[in-house]
Amino acid sequence: MTESNDVPRSDPRVALKQANRVILTLALLLLGALVGLAWVWLQRPAVDLDQVAMLDPAIRRQVVSRLAHRHEGFYDSHVDADIGRTSVADLVGFEAEGIVIDTNRFGMRERDYPMPKPPGTLRIVLLGDSFVFGIGVQAQDRMGVFLEQELRSRSPYDGEIEVLHLGVASWNYINQAAFLRRQLSQLQPDVVLHLSLPNDIEDGVGVRGVGVWARFSPQLPRRADSVLDAGFPVATLGFKRSGYVRHGIDYEGQQRYAAAVALLGRLQGEIEKAGGTYRLLLHFRQLLQPSWKYLGRHLSPGTAVYISKDFGNDRRYWVDRNDHHWNRQGHLRASRMLYELLRRDGLAPRLELPEWEEASRDFEAIAEHGRGEAEQREQTEHELLALLRSPAIGSAIDFQQLDDASAAQIHTGIDAERLVSPYASFVLAQPTDGGLAALRIRGRTLERPELDGAKVQIFIDETPVEVLEIVSGNEIDLVVPVPEAVKGRPFSSIRFSSDDYVYAGFDFQHCVVFQLDSIVFEPTQAFGS
């Protein structure tokens, strides 16, 4: 059969053009769909798979534990600058010098207690620092564990009894009070037993990214790395004697005790308003009398409980000969003393605690004897130093020729190269040979023009006496009259507070202002005036 000539033949070029149009149209539609899908994808609520996984408590504990084990320490920062740091939360099996450390979701070395407190639960809180945390002992060998066991076995109370350890090593009063007060209505403690040590008046430090203590205080950010603690002359300058801030002999120490009185008085008031009771246990060892003179006697009667020097200095109850933290036996005796304190003072009447002869003996030996040691005749500052066999405090410090005795007069704020930090504090004895005294300050400003114009306020005790304006590369030789308001005091605090600083040190994280050669109290006639 032959093909008819009447049937038209298609042009291949036309067909190709039509196919291309269809393909292009489909491609544009597909591209539009992909763009639309991409836009929808980008607008979706962000989902962090890691965050979702961390909502699982079991996964979170595993991850936190692994991270902590890779760090040098087990501390973590806290959102509240008044607290600064806690232990890392949800630790499992972290080992530090042979001691296993587990923590709960709050960063406390304690079981995961419910919040708010369940009805019918009697909750006793042990508040404090390293002694409450339990440095050097396993968790089950701490005083709160022993106390809870005895309360449960001896009390007829049929509800739940909890004794909780809320403490982090080297927390100060501000850390401790803030942590408890800002959760008080949820924690709802029936009793707060607050164990206090002399370093609780010192600066509370923060934490570095590797989980160890930092050299700054979140509570005092403008002071940068000038942290105040009694160990400053030893830890920072390498001398053998600690400083005097805990002794309360000068303004620096006394105003810190006064601030503690106000802080703890407020804490006690809020605990009692919430229906609880409060006791402050002062474990100050050789500084037991200053703890009474500057702190305990200024609180409500019966609030302060003094732990005997004999018990505190008995090495049988120490972790080791160089570490006075309590070992298992020390915690056990402390727990019996606390039992008797609860019973005698009626701090937890629902427990109806019976007499316990062993607890009564430990209370007499630790608390009753401690009160007698603390509340003796009030001693002057000089008598206290003589009792502690401290060297005489001088009326001058030559920072170019420091020794153990003069270095102990440094509270904080100067390094081995005599560079002064944004805050520095020293104690000097006022001259006793009569005449009007003046303060002489010698040193030099740094060759750091970026610091020009910075102002350093100089104080003698609480009184501002001079402003040093920084001009780089100048000698400093200031003679400042001593105000009448501070004359006649046995000891005075010389303090420097700067509004700016520059970086120094190998890592450029040391903050400094000027170089200080000497400070000295002398009669004004020594300067020809």
In short:
With 529 residues, the chain is an alpha+beta fold.
Word description of this protein:
- 31% of the residues lie in helices and 23% in strands.
- The chain is α+β, with helices and mostly antiparallel strands.
- The chain has 2 domains: 55-374, SGNH hydrolase (Rossmann fold, 3-Layer(aba) Sandwich); 396-527, Jelly Rolls (Sandwich), CATH 2.60.120.
- The strands form 6 sheets. Strands 12, 13, 14, 15, 16, 17, 18, 19 and 22 form a 9-stranded antiparallel sheet that branches.
- A hairpin with a 2-residue loop joins strand 3 (94-96) and strand 4 (99-101).
- Helix 6 (173-181) runs parallel beside helix 9 and helix 12 crosses helix 13 (357-374).
- The chain starts with 11 loop residues before the first helix and ends in a 6-residue tail after the last strand.
- The relative contact order is 0.09.
Key attributes of the depicted protein:
Rossmann fold; Jelly Rolls; 23% strand; 2 domains; alpha+beta; 5-stranded parallel sheet
Number of helices: 15
Number of separate strands? 22
Instruction: Measure the end-to-end span.
Output: 140 Å
Low-confidence stretches: 1-16, 46-52
- Can you tell me the CATH topology of the largest domain? Rossmann fold
Strand content: 15-25%
Shape descriptor: globular
Report the radius of gyration as a whole number of Å: 33 Å
Structural class based on helices, strands and sheet pairing: alpha+beta
Oligomerization state of this entry? Answer: single chain
Average pLDDT score: 90
Helix content: 25-40%
- Under the CATH scheme, the architecture of the largest domain is 3-Layer(aba) Sandwich
Structurally, the number of domains stands at 2
CATH class of the largest domain: Alpha Beta
Would you identify the CATH H-level superfamily of the largest domain? SGNH hydrolase
How would you sum up the major sheet? 9 strands, antiparallel
